[in-house]
Design brief:
By secondary structure, the protein is of the alpha/beta class. The chain has a single domain, classed as TIM Barrel. The chain contains 11 helices and 13 strands. Helix 5 links the parallel strand 7 and strand 8. About 50% of the residues are buried. The structure holds flavin mononucleotide.
Protein backbone atom coordinates (compact mmCIF):
# COMPACT_ATOMS: atom_id res chain seq x y z
CA UNK A 1 0.00 0.00 0.00
CA UNK A 2 1.39 3.42 -0.93
CA UNK A 3 1.72 6.33 1.48
CA UNK A 4 -1.14 8.21 -0.15
CA UNK A 5 -3.45 5.21 0.24
CA UNK A 6 -2.64 5.10 3.98
CA UNK A 7 -2.96 8.89 4.25
CA UNK A 8 -6.47 9.19 2.76
CA UNK A 9 -8.39 7.31 5.50
CA UNK A 10 -6.70 9.59 8.07
CA UNK A 11 -7.54 12.72 6.07
CA UNK A 12 -11.10 11.72 5.16
CA UNK A 13 -12.84 12.57 8.49
CA UNK A 14 -11.22 16.04 8.37
CA UNK A 15 -12.13 16.56 4.75
CA UNK A 16 -15.72 15.42 5.37
CA UNK A 17 -16.07 18.04 8.10
CA UNK A 18 -15.39 20.74 5.50
CA UNK A 19 -17.88 21.97 2.94
CA UNK A 20 -17.79 19.42 0.07
CA UNK A 21 -16.51 21.85 -2.58
CA UNK A 22 -13.82 23.28 -0.27
CA UNK A 23 -12.65 19.74 0.55
CA UNK A 24 -12.47 18.97 -3.17
CA UNK A 25 -10.45 22.09 -3.99
CA UNK A 26 -8.09 21.41 -1.08
CA UNK A 27 -7.54 17.76 -2.04
CA UNK A 28 -6.65 18.63 -5.63
CA UNK A 29 -4.24 21.35 -4.41
CA UNK A 30 -2.60 18.89 -1.99
CA UNK A 31 -2.21 16.38 -4.80
CA UNK A 32 -0.50 18.95 -7.02
CA UNK A 33 1.92 19.86 -4.20
CA UNK A 34 2.59 16.22 -3.32
CA UNK A 35 3.33 15.53 -6.98
CA UNK A 36 5.69 18.53 -7.29
CA UNK A 37 7.54 17.33 -4.19
CA UNK A 38 7.84 13.88 -5.74
CA UNK A 39 5.74 12.40 -2.95
CA UNK A 40 2.95 11.00 -5.09
CA UNK A 41 3.34 7.28 -5.58
CA UNK A 42 1.55 5.31 -8.22
CA UNK A 43 -0.98 2.77 -7.02
CA UNK A 44 0.02 0.65 -10.01
CA UNK A 45 2.25 -2.05 -8.56
CA UNK A 46 2.87 -4.20 -11.63
CA UNK A 47 3.07 -3.30 -15.29
CA UNK A 48 -0.46 -3.58 -16.72
CA UNK A 49 -1.67 -4.74 -20.05
CA UNK A 50 -2.18 -1.56 -22.05
CA UNK A 51 -5.37 -1.39 -24.12
CA UNK A 52 -5.70 0.02 -27.58
CA UNK A 53 -9.07 1.70 -27.95
CA UNK A 54 -10.02 4.12 -30.77
CA UNK A 55 -6.45 3.83 -32.01
CA UNK A 56 -5.08 5.16 -28.71
CA UNK A 57 -2.90 3.15 -26.35
CA UNK A 58 -4.29 3.46 -22.83
CA UNK A 59 -1.70 2.45 -20.15
CA UNK A 60 -4.60 0.82 -18.25
CA UNK A 61 -8.41 0.80 -18.22
CA UNK A 62 -8.87 3.23 -15.33
CA UNK A 63 -9.88 6.81 -16.03
CA UNK A 64 -10.80 9.85 -13.97
CA UNK A 65 -14.34 11.05 -14.74
CA UNK A 66 -14.96 14.58 -16.00
CA UNK A 67 -15.62 17.24 -13.39
CA UNK A 68 -12.87 16.26 -10.92
CA UNK A 69 -10.26 18.31 -12.80
CA UNK A 70 -12.38 20.87 -14.61
CA UNK A 71 -9.49 23.22 -15.36
CA UNK A 72 -6.82 20.63 -16.32
CA UNK A 73 -4.63 21.81 -13.46
CA UNK A 74 -3.58 18.41 -12.07
CA UNK A 75 -3.30 16.02 -15.06
CA UNK A 76 0.32 15.12 -14.27
CA UNK A 77 -0.61 14.32 -10.67
CA UNK A 78 -3.51 12.04 -11.69
CA UNK A 79 -1.21 10.29 -14.13
CA UNK A 80 1.44 9.82 -11.42
CA UNK A 81 -1.18 8.33 -9.12
CA UNK A 82 -1.81 5.59 -11.68
CA UNK A 83 -4.75 6.70 -13.81
CA UNK A 84 -4.43 5.45 -17.39
CA UNK A 85 -6.50 8.39 -18.56
CA UNK A 86 -7.93 11.63 -17.29
CA UNK A 87 -10.92 13.47 -18.72
CA UNK A 88 -10.65 17.19 -18.01
CA UNK A 89 -13.53 19.68 -18.13
CA UNK A 90 -16.30 20.25 -18.87
CA UNK A 91 -14.82 23.25 -20.66
CA UNK A 92 -16.82 25.95 -22.42
CA UNK A 93 -15.64 28.52 -25.00
CA UNK A 94 -15.69 31.39 -22.46
CA UNK A 95 -14.79 31.12 -18.75
CA UNK A 96 -17.82 31.07 -16.41
CA UNK A 97 -18.33 30.93 -12.62
CA UNK A 98 -21.01 28.23 -12.52
CA UNK A 99 -23.97 28.22 -10.11
CA UNK A 100 -23.99 29.95 -6.70
CA UNK A 101 -22.57 27.94 -3.78
CA UNK A 102 -23.35 25.64 -2.04
CA UNK A 103 -23.64 23.43 -5.11
CA UNK A 104 -22.05 20.14 -4.04
CA UNK A 105 -23.52 17.88 -1.34
CA UNK A 106 -22.51 14.58 0.25
CA UNK A 107 -24.98 11.84 1.11
CA UNK A 108 -22.63 9.49 2.99
CA UNK A 109 -25.46 7.11 4.00
CA UNK A 110 -25.83 6.34 0.29
CA UNK A 111 -22.18 6.77 -0.77
CA UNK A 112 -23.52 9.46 -3.09
CA UNK A 113 -23.05 13.07 -4.14
CA UNK A 114 -25.45 15.63 -5.55
CA UNK A 115 -23.94 18.43 -7.60
CA UNK A 116 -25.23 21.44 -9.50
CA UNK A 117 -21.86 22.98 -10.28
CA UNK A 118 -23.05 24.36 -13.65
CA UNK A 119 -19.82 24.11 -15.65
CA UNK A 120 -17.65 26.39 -13.51
CA UNK A 121 -14.50 26.51 -15.61
CA UNK A 122 -11.69 28.81 -16.79
CA UNK A 123 -12.60 28.45 -20.48
CA UNK A 124 -11.20 26.12 -23.13
CA UNK A 125 -8.20 28.30 -24.02
CA UNK A 126 -6.85 28.30 -20.46
CA UNK A 127 -7.12 24.49 -20.32
CA UNK A 128 -5.43 24.11 -23.71
CA UNK A 129 -2.46 26.18 -22.51
CA UNK A 130 -2.12 23.96 -19.43
CA UNK A 131 -2.36 20.79 -21.49
CA UNK A 132 0.37 21.98 -23.84
CA UNK A 133 2.73 21.88 -20.84
CA UNK A 134 1.68 18.45 -19.55
CA UNK A 135 4.26 15.74 -18.98
CA UNK A 136 2.10 12.73 -18.16
CA UNK A 137 2.03 9.76 -20.51
CA UNK A 138 -1.58 9.10 -19.53
CA UNK A 139 -4.23 9.70 -22.15
CA UNK A 140 -6.04 13.03 -21.74
CA UNK A 141 -9.61 13.53 -22.91
CA UNK A 142 -11.10 17.02 -23.16
CA UNK A 143 -14.78 17.20 -22.23
CA UNK A 144 -16.56 20.09 -23.95
CA UNK A 145 -19.87 21.89 -23.42
CA UNK A 146 -21.68 25.14 -24.10
CA UNK A 147 -21.74 28.34 -22.06
CA UNK A 148 -24.84 28.73 -19.86
CA UNK A 149 -25.96 31.84 -21.77
CA UNK A 150 -25.61 30.35 -25.26
CA UNK A 151 -29.08 29.45 -26.54
CA UNK A 152 -29.54 25.87 -27.78
CA UNK A 153 -29.98 27.15 -31.38
CA UNK A 154 -26.37 28.35 -31.20
CA UNK A 155 -25.00 25.43 -29.12
CA UNK A 156 -23.30 23.89 -32.18
CA UNK A 157 -21.07 26.99 -32.46
CA UNK A 158 -19.86 26.57 -28.86
CA UNK A 159 -19.03 22.88 -29.35
CA UNK A 160 -17.28 23.64 -32.66
CA UNK A 161 -15.20 26.40 -31.04
CA UNK A 162 -14.11 24.00 -28.27
CA UNK A 163 -13.37 21.18 -30.71
CA UNK A 164 -11.16 23.45 -32.84
CA UNK A 165 -9.34 24.87 -29.79
CA UNK A 166 -8.64 21.49 -28.16
CA UNK A 167 -8.20 19.27 -31.23
CA UNK A 168 -4.40 19.19 -31.22
CA UNK A 169 -3.77 18.91 -27.46
CA UNK A 170 -6.50 16.38 -26.73
CA UNK A 171 -6.10 12.63 -27.14
CA UNK A 172 -9.89 12.46 -27.42
CA UNK A 173 -12.80 14.88 -27.20
CA UNK A 174 -15.93 14.12 -25.15
CA UNK A 175 -19.09 15.95 -26.19
CA UNK A 176 -21.11 16.53 -23.03
CA UNK A 177 -24.84 16.74 -23.77
CA UNK A 178 -25.89 15.12 -20.53
CA UNK A 179 -25.17 17.47 -17.62
CA UNK A 180 -28.43 18.26 -15.80
CA UNK A 181 -27.07 21.58 -14.53
CA UNK A 182 -27.06 23.69 -17.70
CA UNK A 183 -30.59 24.63 -18.72
CA UNK A 184 -31.66 22.87 -21.92
CA UNK A 185 -28.38 20.94 -22.37
CA UNK A 186 -30.03 17.53 -22.18
CA UNK A 187 -32.48 18.60 -24.91
CA UNK A 188 -29.50 18.24 -27.26
CA UNK A 189 -29.96 14.47 -26.79
CA UNK A 190 -33.19 14.63 -28.86
CA UNK A 191 -32.74 12.81 -32.18
CA UNK A 192 -32.79 15.78 -34.56
CA UNK A 193 -30.71 17.99 -32.29
CA UNK A 194 -28.06 15.33 -31.70
CA UNK A 195 -27.90 14.50 -35.42
CA UNK A 196 -27.30 18.14 -36.30
CA UNK A 197 -24.67 18.53 -33.57
CA UNK A 198 -22.76 15.32 -34.26
CA UNK A 199 -22.80 15.76 -38.01
CA UNK A 200 -21.34 19.30 -37.68
CA UNK A 201 -18.67 18.03 -35.27
CA UNK A 202 -17.78 15.00 -37.41
CA UNK A 203 -17.40 17.27 -40.47
CA UNK A 204 -15.10 19.58 -38.54
CA UNK A 205 -13.16 16.61 -37.17
CA UNK A 206 -12.58 15.39 -40.76
CA UNK A 207 -11.42 18.85 -41.85
CA UNK A 208 -9.04 19.14 -38.86
CA UNK A 209 -7.68 15.67 -39.53
CA UNK A 210 -6.93 16.65 -43.12
CA UNK A 211 -5.34 19.93 -42.06
CA UNK A 212 -3.14 18.55 -39.25
CA UNK A 213 -2.70 14.89 -40.13
CA UNK A 214 -3.77 13.96 -36.59
CA UNK A 215 -6.90 12.07 -35.79
CA UNK A 216 -8.63 12.91 -32.49
CA UNK A 217 -11.56 10.62 -31.65
CA UNK A 218 -14.93 12.16 -30.81
CA UNK A 219 -17.08 10.62 -28.08
CA UNK A 220 -20.50 11.56 -26.74
CA UNK A 221 -21.35 11.48 -23.03
CA UNK A 222 -24.93 10.53 -22.32
CA UNK A 223 -27.36 10.67 -19.39
CA UNK A 224 -28.63 7.68 -17.43
CA UNK A 225 -32.15 9.16 -17.56
CA UNK A 226 -33.07 8.00 -21.06
CA UNK A 227 -36.04 5.81 -21.92
CA UNK A 228 -35.84 2.93 -24.41
CA UNK A 229 -37.03 5.08 -27.32
CA UNK A 230 -34.46 7.78 -26.59
CA UNK A 231 -31.71 5.19 -26.30
CA UNK A 232 -32.68 3.66 -29.66
CA UNK A 233 -32.81 7.08 -31.33
CA UNK A 234 -29.40 8.06 -29.96
CA UNK A 235 -27.82 4.75 -30.97
CA UNK A 236 -29.29 5.19 -34.48
CA UNK A 237 -27.62 8.60 -34.83
CA UNK A 238 -24.33 7.39 -33.34
CA UNK A 239 -24.20 4.46 -35.79
CA UNK A 240 -25.21 6.58 -38.76
CA UNK A 241 -22.63 9.29 -37.93
CA UNK A 242 -19.94 6.73 -37.02
CA UNK A 243 -19.28 8.27 -33.62
CA UNK A 244 -15.90 7.12 -32.27
CA UNK A 245 -17.14 6.22 -28.78
CA UNK A 246 -19.82 6.69 -26.12
CA UNK A 247 -19.40 7.56 -22.44
CA UNK A 248 -22.18 6.05 -20.31
CA UNK A 249 -23.18 7.76 -18.05
CA UNK A 250 -23.41 11.16 -16.44
CA UNK A 251 -25.30 11.81 -13.15
CA UNK A 252 -29.02 11.14 -12.67
CA UNK A 253 -31.87 13.50 -11.83
CA UNK A 254 -33.83 10.56 -10.39
CA UNK A 255 -34.07 10.54 -6.59
CA UNK A 256 -35.84 7.25 -5.95
CA UNK A 257 -32.73 5.60 -4.53
CA UNK A 258 -32.18 8.37 -1.97
CA UNK A 259 -35.84 9.27 -1.25
CA UNK A 260 -36.33 10.50 2.31
CA UNK A 261 -32.75 11.76 2.71
CA UNK A 262 -32.55 15.33 4.02
CA UNK A 263 -30.61 16.41 0.91
CA UNK A 264 -32.56 14.35 -1.64
CA UNK A 265 -34.44 17.42 -2.86
CA UNK A 266 -31.33 19.44 -3.66
CA UNK A 267 -31.40 20.25 -7.38
CA UNK A 268 -28.64 18.65 -9.45
CA UNK A 269 -27.20 15.37 -10.58
CA UNK A 270 -26.91 12.38 -8.25
CA UNK A 271 -23.80 10.22 -8.54
CA UNK A 272 -22.12 7.37 -6.69
CA UNK A 273 -23.65 4.07 -5.56
CA UNK A 274 -27.31 5.01 -6.38
CA UNK A 275 -26.58 5.59 -10.10
CA UNK A 276 -24.76 2.28 -10.67
CA UNK A 277 -27.73 0.13 -11.64
CA UNK A 278 -29.27 2.63 -14.07
CA UNK A 279 -25.85 3.41 -15.59
CA UNK A 280 -25.25 -0.28 -16.15
CA UNK A 281 -28.65 -0.75 -17.83
CA UNK A 282 -27.91 2.12 -20.20
CA UNK A 283 -24.42 0.76 -20.88
CA UNK A 284 -25.86 -2.66 -21.68
CA UNK A 285 -28.53 -1.21 -23.98
CA UNK A 286 -25.98 0.81 -25.95
CA UNK A 287 -23.66 -2.21 -26.19
CA UNK A 288 -26.49 -4.12 -27.86
CA UNK A 289 -27.44 -1.32 -30.24
CA UNK A 290 -24.10 0.22 -31.22
CA UNK A 291 -21.89 -1.14 -33.98
CA UNK A 292 -19.46 -3.68 -32.49
CA UNK A 293 -16.45 -1.51 -33.16
CA UNK A 294 -17.82 1.47 -31.22
CA UNK A 295 -16.22 1.46 -27.75
CA UNK A 296 -18.04 2.49 -24.59
CA UNK A 297 -16.44 4.07 -21.52
CA UNK A 298 -18.41 2.89 -18.47
CA UNK A 299 -18.88 5.38 -15.65
CA UNK A 300 -21.40 5.70 -12.82
CA UNK A 301 -21.41 4.16 -9.38
CA UNK A 302 -18.10 2.29 -9.41
CA UNK A 303 -17.41 2.00 -5.67
CA UNK A 304 -15.17 -1.08 -5.70
CA UNK A 305 -13.10 -3.27 -8.00
CA UNK A 306 -16.05 -5.55 -8.68
CA UNK A 307 -18.10 -2.57 -9.89
CA UNK A 308 -15.45 -1.80 -12.49
CA UNK A 309 -15.12 -5.43 -13.57
CA UNK A 310 -18.91 -5.56 -13.95
CA UNK A 311 -18.89 -2.65 -16.42
CA UNK A 312 -16.17 -4.32 -18.51
CA UNK A 313 -18.23 -7.52 -18.50
CA UNK A 314 -21.28 -5.59 -19.70
CA UNK A 315 -19.32 -4.35 -22.68
CA UNK A 316 -17.31 -1.31 -21.62
CA UNK A 317 -13.76 -1.06 -22.99
CA UNK A 318 -12.60 1.38 -20.30
CA UNK A 319 -13.99 2.73 -17.02
CA UNK A 320 -13.98 6.02 -15.12
CA UNK A 321 -14.46 6.85 -11.44
CA UNK A 322 -15.46 10.00 -9.59
CA UNK A 323 -17.69 9.69 -6.50
CA UNK A 324 -16.03 6.42 -5.48
CA UNK A 325 -12.74 8.29 -5.21
CA UNK A 326 -14.31 10.74 -2.75
CA UNK A 327 -15.58 7.92 -0.53
CA UNK A 328 -12.74 5.41 -0.89
CA UNK A 329 -9.69 7.45 -1.89
CA UNK A 330 -6.77 6.12 -3.96
CA UNK A 331 -7.34 2.61 -2.57
CA UNK A 332 -10.25 2.40 -5.03
CA UNK A 333 -7.92 3.08 -7.96
CA UNK A 334 -5.69 0.20 -6.88
CA UNK A 335 -8.65 -2.12 -6.37
CA UNK A 336 -10.03 -1.31 -9.83
CA UNK A 337 -6.64 -1.96 -11.44
CA UNK A 338 -6.21 -5.22 -9.59
CA UNK A 339 -9.64 -6.51 -10.50
CA UNK A 340 -9.69 -5.51 -14.15
CA UNK A 341 -6.54 -7.17 -15.49
C1 LIG B 1 -19.04 17.30 -8.50
C2 LIG B 1 -19.20 16.66 -9.84
C3 LIG B 1 -18.94 17.40 -10.98
C4 LIG B 1 -19.09 16.81 -12.24
N1 LIG B 1 -18.82 17.56 -13.35
C5 LIG B 1 -18.93 17.00 -14.56
C6 LIG B 1 -18.62 17.75 -15.73
O1 LIG B 1 -18.23 18.91 -15.66
N2 LIG B 1 -18.78 17.14 -16.94
C7 LIG B 1 -19.20 15.84 -17.05
O2 LIG B 1 -19.30 15.33 -18.18
N3 LIG B 1 -19.48 15.10 -15.97
C8 LIG B 1 -19.36 15.64 -14.74
N4 LIG B 1 -19.63 14.89 -13.63
C9 LIG B 1 -20.13 13.50 -13.80
C10 LIG B 1 -19.03 12.46 -13.60
O3 LIG B 1 -18.00 12.58 -14.56
C11 LIG B 1 -19.65 11.03 -13.70
O4 LIG B 1 -20.16 10.84 -15.00
C12 LIG B 1 -20.77 10.80 -12.70
O5 LIG B 1 -20.47 11.41 -11.46
C13 LIG B 1 -21.05 9.30 -12.46
O6 LIG B 1 -19.89 8.66 -11.97
P1 LIG B 1 -19.61 8.37 -10.41
O7 LIG B 1 -20.86 7.69 -9.88
O8 LIG B 1 -18.39 7.51 -10.39
O9 LIG B 1 -19.41 9.69 -9.75
C14 LIG B 1 -19.51 15.45 -12.36
C15 LIG B 1 -19.76 14.71 -11.19
C16 LIG B 1 -19.61 15.29 -9.94
C17 LIG B 1 -19.89 14.46 -8.71
Amino acid sequence: MTLIEKFYPVMKPWLFRLDAEKAHTLTVKLMIVAHRLGMLQSVVSKPRQPRTVMGLTFPNVLGLGAGMDKSASAVDAWGALGFGFVEVGTLTPRPQPGNPQPRLFRLPEHEALINRMGFNNPGIHSAVEKLQRRRTKSIVGVNIGKNFDTPNEKAVDDYLACLKAAYLVADYIAVNISSPNTKGLRDLQAEDAVRQLISALKNEQAALKKEHGKSTPLLVKIAPDLNDMQIEALARVFNEQSIDGVIATNTTIDREAVAGHALARETGGLSGAPVRERSNLVLQAFRMLLKDATPIIGVGGIMDGAGAAEKLKLGASLVQIYSGLVYRGPALAREVLEQTI
